[in-house]
User: Fold these one by one.
Assistant:
Number 1:
Amino acid sequence: MGLFIGAAVLLLVAAGLWGVRFTVRTHGKFNALGSNQEAPPWAFTLAASLPTVAGALMLVFSAVFTVPNNHAGVEVLFGRITAAHSEGIHLKNPLSSVYNIPGLQQESTYSASAGEGEVRGNDALEAVTADQARVDIDATILWSLDLSEAQYIFREYRTLDQVRARLLRPTARDNVRDCVARHIFQDARTSGRQVIADCSRDAINTETADRGLVVHSVQIRGMAAQSTEFQAGIDRKLVADQAAQEALYRQQQAQVDAETARITAEGEARAAIERAKGEAEANQRVEESLTPQLVEYRKYEFLSKAGNTVWVIEGQSPPIPVLPVTSGLADGEETSDQQ
């Protein structure tokens, strides 16, 4: 692009200079012949110099360029990298070209499912676990370019597609394979999945630290054994493990229930014993408090509340209760003595 602009500027300047020269020579020729024709008007002279002015303006504007946000501009002159520019407005050699290197986050997916990966067909990452199971791994890697290494990135890869194909893909395959090899298949696809993801991220960053590539995260989306027989055996083992865990849970629950019942029964027994002790102690205290005088008093108190009882006291003898006279006799019934 820079060469094209430079060539256009040179052509415009040359055309302008030629127009000015032609105007001057024509003006001089008319005067030399003694022609009565007047000199060319100023408009003709200006028109002849327009290409020169246009070329100069193009020269100025071609020296000014803008680098977009979160990009780096690599300036190249005749195939040689001369400078790298950060985002914003800058000046450059009018004959040089500027290539923008993006620093935006990128996503690369490797999957066995058609249409999900970066290439057609099965694009999953292959690995071998610690128990010799060959597996296909579906993974997504979030990454970006280190703009401080813009010159190196442009010199070695030029485009994002080249970065993906020549740097990220082989590095990711090697390091994910190494991290998976530390785990058995069952752990690798369950509890060890995040450990493998973190291990892969750190390993890739270590290898590409000085090559302009930064991996933000590795997401292990799925893992499946390539052998259907191995996968079936794992599934059967999982079912058996789940059944064993369920039986163990029921056994533990029965033990807990039995222990709870025992504790409850012991508590109730202790409570009954305490209640019996309390009642016995209360009865003993009542028995100890029942003196002959109190018994007599309670008897007098009970008979007094039962009706209009009259107590007859003679000397030192205990009081004698006399029952009240019935209402029938009180109203005038005659006894046999009165008759």
Note: The first helix runs from residue 2 to 32.
Number 2:
Amino acid sequence: MAEKELTPWRPFGELTSLRREMDRLWENFFGERPLTRIWEREWTPSLEMSETKDNFVVKAEVPGINAKDIDISLTGDVLTIKGEKKQEKEEKEEDYHLVERSYGSFSRSVRLPAEVESDRIRASYKNGILNITLPKSEKVKAKEVKIKVG
């Protein structure tokens, strides 16, 4: 009678192998790391612009970006927000080690509807939200005019 070799079953080894095969399938179809490439080329933060009696307020969603990596400039009536994301995620377990890095830059510009006092612009950054307050120039602030209807 022939001897049979006993092979231990390693379920996590099979899952890891399946994961590698799926990753290879996606890479062959889309090219290497498609989601990272989309982020690096096409991501721009969402902006919200509002107006009060005295200010224009611009809020930008820039999660995962360090405040020191954000640049705000005003040229004429165009406000520009630029930034760069540098993120690294690392996971270590007994049977694998994963490191993911994503880098990318963005630039977003918005034309202001009226003149602002550039020397009084303020910006703050908290929890991934950039808040820019742009005081209106005195000559463009709305003045209340009473009109009699008769």
Note: The domain at 44-139 is CATH 2.60.40.790 (Immunoglobulin-like).
Number 3:
Amino acid sequence: MIKIAICDDMTEITSQLENIIIEISKKHLVDVDIGVFFSGDDLLRYINNGNTFDLIFLDIEMEIIDGIEVGNEIRESMSDNDTQIVYISGKADYAMALFRIRPFNFLVKPLESEKVEDVFLTYLKANDKNQYFPYKKGGAHNRIEVKDIIFFESNNRKVNIVTKDGTESFYGSMNEVYEKVKDIGFIYIHKSYIINTLYIRTYLYEKVILLNDKELPISQARRTSIRDKLLSSNKKGI
């Protein structure tokens, strides 16, 4: 769970940014808890009451207490060097004023979803936050750490989640699963199999052999695209 604060005195900005972050978190299977504040004073009061955040998106140009003052309060008065601060501004010339606060990043208004996503993913990589695959079974919402999933397997109208510790099943489609995991290291090698590339021991043109010695076929229609994808990943060091 990543605890995120959004602080901006413009409600349209807080609403836009909250929606962007929610969509990004769904796309990358990350749990987030978002708090929205419309003044620096409200944010500081909340933190002073014993609450903490992992990541703060903080507007600079706010009335009464601006974002630079809030950042100084967090870093100097509270001696908090762990909370990461991403500044938001309509201007791009605050470099020297922000130097002592050591911001994690800087976003210029108007906000762009792609740039917010880049900042979010950079934060995830820098802080090694766990990612989860969510699924629903018997009316209950469940989740499994992505790093523990070896592959997904089609089983009629069910999907089997094969992990290091066993197998879980839920009703769903492989296409729906792939939409959730395609950007986080999984490949769709066959209509019945979506595999985690971290668990590939040996890749052959027509099949893969996983670390648990399981052999899975690559469908003929996907062989060229899978080869290109794996070769591209290897070049990037993935």
Note: Residues 2-127 form a domain with the Rossmann fold fold (CATH 3.40.50.2300).
